[in-house]
Design a protein that fits this description.
The strands form 3 sheets. Strands 8, 9, 10, 11, 12 and 13 form a 6-stranded antiparallel β-sheet that branches. The protein has a 4-stranded antiparallel β-sheet with strand order 4-7-5-6, with helices on both faces. 35% of the residues lie in helices and 20% in strands. By secondary structure, the chain is of the alpha+beta class. The chain folds into 3 domains: 90 residues, Rossmann fold (3-Layer(aba) Sandwich); 65 residues; 132 residues, D-amino Acid Aminotransferase, Chain A, domain 1 (2-Layer Sandwich), CATH 3.30.470.
């Protein structure tokens, strides 16, 4: 008898953005890989109608769920609802658990946990006046969404030069009001961007996001929404990824060790991505930990698997084998 797998994804909103629609590419690619692995599949959308979602999942009687839910109604802070429901139904699922997902999806909570575990991360400021808020006079800060991924609200104008902590807090509040979501600020590090992707804790070759042409030596380097999603923009056309670099072997070793530490500290499983910024003195800082990152064919994560000689279907198989089955 062939095992059935539910491919679960967030229901697309009525007016979807480019980054929201990307989940459908993931569904297509993962579904094809599962079929190649010998599974029978059923694609189920996940929405606020939780009773319907639960019934749809239970009716398929799956051996497990391949969880591709990125939020609900294009809201990233609701990303933990799907794994919570699957835990309630006692159905195994791929990727990170609801606990790991909650911590790593909240960038401020992630930074607090990194700081307490001696993982290097840039100083930050929130509007709540917490004790770990650190404002450094004369430094630039970048104002980022606390929960959302896909670089929402992140552009060159997000990098600011506040004259005081009060000034910075007011800038954060203005961003909150503009986008109607929660933002915070962290010290901007003008340096190089690196990423380590991991499948079942195995690290893929590290890659660098390169900025060229449009980005001169002094221009703010932010892998923003345009660079990721909007074709035919200066940001999109002047960023790329590379796998070859010389003279920074010790820095790469540091990042590889930090990535392993992050996997263990945050109790990750399945697949994840750790993003770094290396400052002009060669010191690495963790920018974000991305649980269940986009795994569409042809994008960064897949390219890193290819560089590591990991076939896409084999990568999906490894993710499945790394599930935490507790039922």
């Amino acid at each position: 008898m062939v095992d059935k797998v539910v491919v679960l994804h967030n229901k697309i909103s009525d007016n979807p953005t480019t980054d929201e629609l990307d989940v459908l590419d993931q569904v297509k690619d993962v579904n094809e890989a599962l079929i190649q692995l010998g599974y029978e599949t059923a694609i189920v959308p996940f929405s606020f109608d939780l009773n319907k979602a639960m019934e749809d999942i239970k009716n398929e009687n799956p051996k497990f769920v391949f969880n591709l839910v990125e939020g609900m109604d294009n809201d990233g802070q609701l990303i933990t609802i799907a794994p919570s429901i699957l835990d309630y139904l006692k159905i195994p699922y791929t990727g990170c658990t609801k606990e790991s997902m909650f911590i790593t999806s909240n960038k401020v909570l992630t930074k607090k946990m990194m700081k307490s575990n001696c993982i290097p991360t840039a100083e930050w400021v929130t509007t709540d006046g917490a004790k770990d808020n650190v404002f450094l006079n004369g430094e630039r800060y970048i104002v980022k969404a606390t929960w959302e991924d896909a670089s929402i609200g992140l552009d060159e104008d997000a990098v600011v030069s506040p004259t005081s902590k009060e000034d910075l807090i007011n800038l954060i509040k203005a961003k909150n009001e503009k986008y109607k979501i929660e933002f915070f600020a962290e010290r901007y590090i003008h340096g190089r961007d690196f990423t380590i992707s991991m499948v079942a804790r195995k690290q893929m070759p590290i890659c660098e996001v390169t900025f060229f042409g449009y980005y001169d030596d002094d221009k703010v380097r932010v892998f923003d929404y345009n660079a990721k999603w909007v074709k035919d923009t200066a940001e999109y056309d002047n960023t790329d990824i590379e796998f070859e670099f010389e003279g920074i072997e010790s820095v790469i070793e540091q990042m590889q060790k930090i990535a392993y530490d992050c996997w263990d500290i945050f109790n990750l499983n399945g697949y994840a991505r750790v993003d770094f910024r290396v400052d002009e003195e060669g010191k690495p800082f963790v920018l974000e930990i991305n649980p269940n990152p986009c795994i569409s064919k042809g994008i960064m994560f897949d390219k890193m698997m290819q560089e590591g000689k990991v076939d896409y279907v084999d990568g999906i198989k490894a993710i499945i084998e790394d599930m935490k089955v507790i039922y």
